[in-house]
């Protein structure tokens, strides 16, 4: 096995280890960055939903209540209805993004929690201190990040419509019926705000970035390996081969071969000079023996 082959095997082994370590760390960092990007979008959607809810409570509800009689119930005064309607309109342009105020016992049956949403709500109900939950679930379009926050009955005015059927406004009962959305308790977690954001685009972008990074790293290694091989051949291997061939000829008794001339001031040059001195000393010793 030649010196060049040994050198390349060591270099390839070092590169393989370095590439594996760099690949693991870079992949994890890119995946984390993609997840943080999606989570930032989810929090922005959540903040927008809260803004719609607050605006409905402070601005829309007083105006509509002032202009309607008690015989008419307008769902537009309900913050949950306003926020979800706003996002349903947005979903026409961004169908993979979703916002829902899911409840175990909702007034509007369309707000009833699915199985996985019910699991999130029950997690909030079991843990009073849990204010936010982030999870990833599989959907038909790929991985989806889910950001959820609890919906808690913190205002006694909510119980006017949701404590008992006989206390609810007749107009609301006429619209939604008496079968849902009653029996709520003060400070009870009755549902969750659930934001769903697709992760496919950021993850695909992270994967593409990872492949470009690994490919660039590999290309840089190949370029460095080629340069090192050229330098190793010119500065080490070829001079050593010349010295070895001359030494072989001298050992076979051929004293007419020219001296090895290597004009360098490094270890190879010193080896060449030492070999030439040894050869001259050997020639001198042989002549003295012959005489």
From TrEMBL:
<keyword id="KW-0812">Transmembrane</keyword>
<feature type="transmembrane region" description="Helical">
    <location>
        <begin position="206"/>
        <end position="232"/>
    </location>
</feature>
<dbReference type="InterPro" id="IPR050428">
    <property type="entry name" value="TCS_sensor_his_kinase"/>
</dbReference>
<feature type="domain" description="HAMP">
    <location>
        <begin position="234"/>
        <end position="287"/>
    </location>
</feature>
<dbReference type="InterPro" id="IPR021796">
    <property type="entry name" value="Tll0287-like_dom"/>
</dbReference>
<keyword id="KW-0902">Two-component regulatory system</keyword>
<dbReference type="GO" id="GO:0000160">
    <property type="term" value="P:phosphorelay signal transduction system"/>
</dbReference>
<dbReference type="Pfam" id="PF11845">
    <property type="entry name" value="Tll0287-like"/>
</dbReference>
<keyword id="KW-0597">Phosphoprotein</keyword>
<keyword id="KW-0472">Membrane</keyword>
<keyword id="KW-0808">Transferase</keyword>
<dbReference type="InterPro" id="IPR003660">
    <property type="entry name" value="HAMP_dom"/>
</dbReference>
<keyword id="KW-1133">Transmembrane helix</keyword>
<dbReference type="GO" id="GO:0005886">
    <property type="term" value="C:plasma membrane"/>
</dbReference>
<protein>
    <recommendedName>
        <fullName>histidine kinase</fullName>
        <ecNumber>2.7.13.3</ecNumber>
    </recommendedName>
</protein>
<dbReference type="GO" id="GO:0004673">
    <property type="term" value="F:protein histidine kinase activity"/>
</dbReference>
<dbReference type="Pfam" id="PF00672">
    <property type="entry name" value="HAMP"/>
</dbReference>
<keyword id="KW-0418">Kinase</keyword>
């Amino acid at each position: 096995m030649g010196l060049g082959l040994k050198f390349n095997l060591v270099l390839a082994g070092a590169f393989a280890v370095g590439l594996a370590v760099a690949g693991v760390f870079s992949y994890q960092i890119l995946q984390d960055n993609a997840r943080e990007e999606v989570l930032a979008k989810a929090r922005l959607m959540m903040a927008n939903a809260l803004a719609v809810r607050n605006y409905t409570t402070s601005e829309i509800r007083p105006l509509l209540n002032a202009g309607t009689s008690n015989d008419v119930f307008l769902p537009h005064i309900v913050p949950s209805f306003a926020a979800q309607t706003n996002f349903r309109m947005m979903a026409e342009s961004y169908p993979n993004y979703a916002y829902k105020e899911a409840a175990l016992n909702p007034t509007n049956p369309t707000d009833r929690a699915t199985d996985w949403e019910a699991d999130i709500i029950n997690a909030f109900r079991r843990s009073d201190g849990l204010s936010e939950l982030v999870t990833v679930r599989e959907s038909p379009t790929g991985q989806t990040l889910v950001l959820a926050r609890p919906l808690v009955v913190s205002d006694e005015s909510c119980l006017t419509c949701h404590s008992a059927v006989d206390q609810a406004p007749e107009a609301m009962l006429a619209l939604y019926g008496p079968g849902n959305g009653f029996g709520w308790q003060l400070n009870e977690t009755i549902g969750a705000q659930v934001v769903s954001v697709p992760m496919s685009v950021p993850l695909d972008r992270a994967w593409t970035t990872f492949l470009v990074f690994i490919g660039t790293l590999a290309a840089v290694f190949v370029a460095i390996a080629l340069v090192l091989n050229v330098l190793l051949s010119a500065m080490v291997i070829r001079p050593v081969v010349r010295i070895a061939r001359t030494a072989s000829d001298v050992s076979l008794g051929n004293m007419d071969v020219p001296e090895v001339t290597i004009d360098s001031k490094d270890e190879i040059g010193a080896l060449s000079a030492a070999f030439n001195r040894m050869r001259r000393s050997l020639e001198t010793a042989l002549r003295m023996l012959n005489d």
